[in-house]
Amino acid sequence: MRTVLLVLVGLGLLASGVQAGELKEAKAKFDAAVKEKEVEIAKAPAMFKKELSDELKEYIAIETDNLFELAEKEAESADAFEIFLAMQQRVVDKEKSKKARTLLLTHHLTKPHIKKALPLLAQAGDDSAETHLKKVAEKNVDKECQAVATLLIGVMAQAQAKLTNGQDKKEKLTKATEWLTKAKEKFADVKYQESTIGKLAAGRLAAIKVADSLEVGKPVPDIVGEGIDGKTFKLSDCKGKVVMLSFWATWCGPCMRMVPHERDLVEKMKGRPFELIGVNGDPELTDDVRQIIADKKITWRSFKNEQKDTPPIAETWDIGGWPTIYVIDHKGVIKHIQLGGADLDKFDKLIEELVVAAEKK
Question: Which helix (H) or strand (E) holds 335?
């Protein structure tokens, strides 16, 4: 057993010696020990941080597992909920974890603190997850819980629609639209994930509307929005040119590694019917972000992903990762969609072929 575990055992914090009915006290000691160790990790030299962090994760997993016996006896308490939730995220004993999930679903779906567990419930993405979320949406006393559950039911249905076709896809998209519309109209101003339920639902609804258009061979939907220079422009302004539309951000390592190649491409295509357009995913254009843009010589136009009165562009386009690149021909038809910056030589070859075709029009 590693050093941190020995220290915590020495402090008498492992739950095996705690009597029933003392969950609150035991959990308070556990939380204090975790906080103390987090402070120690923050102050530790860089070379020791990973080892100490791994030891703390192991301690948390073991201790929550040990606290389960007490939590089971006080299954309806908020402290028990925290133990049950932690056991879904870090598993030591699979059977205990399964039982903890059952207790969580049995005793806590109608309580306000269930909000912490809702994304975890939605991850299952199956009928049982929908059943649990519906119970929260319909019976929880807290408006925020109702709002998040309503949104997540719509998000689940939208995700399921991507995995199927035909009538089944149509039905799932109809369900997604129904729940997302309810979330948007009923809970518009409820705060969630540094945004609002209304804005998040609107983005999802917009994505459903354009989903069939975001395919190779389809005319590209237009984008109208403010650029990082503060000026409003449209993607359709580039009609007649081949467009490389790149979803990028300064926090995205692969995006930044593509910049020299993109810069060379822009230089090579100067004077030809080609334009590189970005969608910048930085939450705020801080001085640091602007300095990176200047240092990297990113001179091409980019939309702000976060627009004032409309959903984020990446959300409307249902972007699954950064960078995502669309290649659009001079007629406005999508010719290639790519996640990540691999095969750049092949990528350049396609752009060259499309530019030659545009020059012959």
Answer: strand 334-339
